[in-house]
Every structure is written in structure tokens, then in C-alpha cells.
Design a protein that fits this description.
Keywords: Membrane, Transmembrane, Transmembrane helix. The chain is 80% helix and 3% strand. It has 213 residues and is mainly alpha-helical. The chain has one domain. Helix 7 packs antiparallel against helix 8.
């Protein structure tokens, strides 16, 4: 059992599975809507790991040739690049031609918030860091906020994501944080905020244009 918990893959899968299970029990969506939400979420998780492992192989090719097990250890650089690419691709699909139903978009936001709470609770009990308390409160606030933003439209959901990223930076400042065993740096959060800003600006411009016509 100790070897199982020391496995770097087991803990992330356990935390994400707990978050999904709790979300499934608490959400008021229909079964078909739950499945659609999970399909979107799982697809993005798959893309993330695929790009991260490919990027890791590219960045550390010679090290992996010398020590093959190095291919299984994802670097912070590979994780950061993969997350930014997947997030940018998701935003592009959403803005281009994949207009996800607002209810599903809000459900994804709620699922991510709930998974974030569970992640920070785990690391709080593991390290007893006061920083984790602030992040637990942040994600709890985002979870509560998601119910209100569902009634206001897509731009409000995007604004909530940007607001959450900014508050995350204010809480952690120059400190890196663990998410499912991966290191999230302040620099990564800054780039995430920039992507949120770009999407929000595009959405607001579209809303203004639609009002004129």
C-alpha cells in the first residue's frame, strides 16, 4: 500500500477520480449532460498528458536515451507548455466553431473548481501549509460563483476564470504550487491569465458587434 501511494501516477488519478465522483453526486445535471461534461474534461486531460510526454521527450531527448525511465518523469517545462497549448486549443475551438452549451461550460467550470478544492485539501493535510487554506477558500469561492455566472452568460464564466487566476497569483505570489504532483509556477499562471484576457476581449467584442446588428 505504501508503494502504491508513493507512485507519482496514483495520487493524481485518485484525486481527480474523487473530484469527478463528488461532482457527479452533487451536480443537478441530467445523466446525458454529465456524460457530455466528462467527455470534454477527459479529452482535455488526455491531450494534456499526450503533449506533455511528447514535449518531455523533445526537451530531454539525450537524457532519456541515457536513462530511459526519465521519459516517465514530466518536467515543469513540459507540463507548463502542454497546459498552455491545451488551454489555447480549447479556447480556439470554443471561439471558432465549437460553441459548447452554456450549461455544459458552467459544469466544466464547477468540476475543475471541485477538483481544485480536493487537490489543495490533500496537500494541506500532507504539508499543513497555510497557503493551501487560501487556495481552498479561493476554489470554494469560484465554485459558489459558478452558480451565479451560469445565469449571466459565457463572458461571465470566462471573467470568473480570469478572476480566479489573478487571485491565485495574489495568494501564492512568488511561490510554486503542486497540482496533482505537478509544479505550477507563477510564470505559468501569468501566461494562463493572458490567455483568459484574450478570450474575454474577443467575447466582449463579439457581444458589442451583435448588439449593433
Amino acid at each position: 500500500m505504501l508503494n502504491l501511494f508513493s507512485n507519482p501516477v496514483f495520487i493524481p488519478l485518485l484525486l481527480i477520480s474523487l473530484g469527478i465522483g463528488l461532482w457527479w453526486l452533487l451536480t443537478s445535471l441530467t445523466v446525458s449532460e454529465k456524460k457530455e461534461t466528462l467527455n470534454h474534461f477527459v479529452d482535455k486531460v488526455f491531450y494534456f498528458f499526450f503533449i506533455a510526454f511528447v514535449g518531455n521527450g523533445f526537451f530531454y531527448f539525450f537524457e532519456i536515451i541515457a536513462l530511459p525511465y526519465r521519459a516517465l518523469i514530466l518536467s515543469t517545462t513540459a507540463v507548463s507548455v502542454s497546459f498552455l497549448l491545451v488551454l489555447a486549443y480549447s479556447f480556439y475551438r470554443y471561439l471558432k466553431n465549437d460553441k459548447t452549451e452554456q450549461k455544459i461550460l458552467g459544469a466544466i467550470f464547477q468540476l475543475v473548481s471541485l477538483v481544485g478544492i480536493i487537490n489543495h485539501m490533500y496537500y494541506y493535510f500532507l504539508y499543513k501549509s497555510p497557503l493551501m487554506i487560501g487556495l481552498i477558500l479561493l476554489f470554494s469561492g469560484l465554485l459558489l460563483l459558478s452558480s451565479a455566472t451560469l445565469l449571466r452568460g459565457d463572458s461571465w464564466i470566462m471573467a470568473s476564470g480570469l478572476l480566479g487566476t489573478i487571485f491565485h497569483l495574489l495568494i501564492t505570489r512568488s511561490q510554486s504550487v503542486l497540482y496533482f504532483g505537478f509544479v505550477v509556477t507563477p510564470e505559468l499562471l501569468v501566461f494562463i491569465a493572458i490567455e483568459w484576457i484574450i478570450v474575454l476581449v474577443v467575447l466582449l467584442r463579439r457581444q458589442k458587434q451583435s448588439k449593433r446588428t
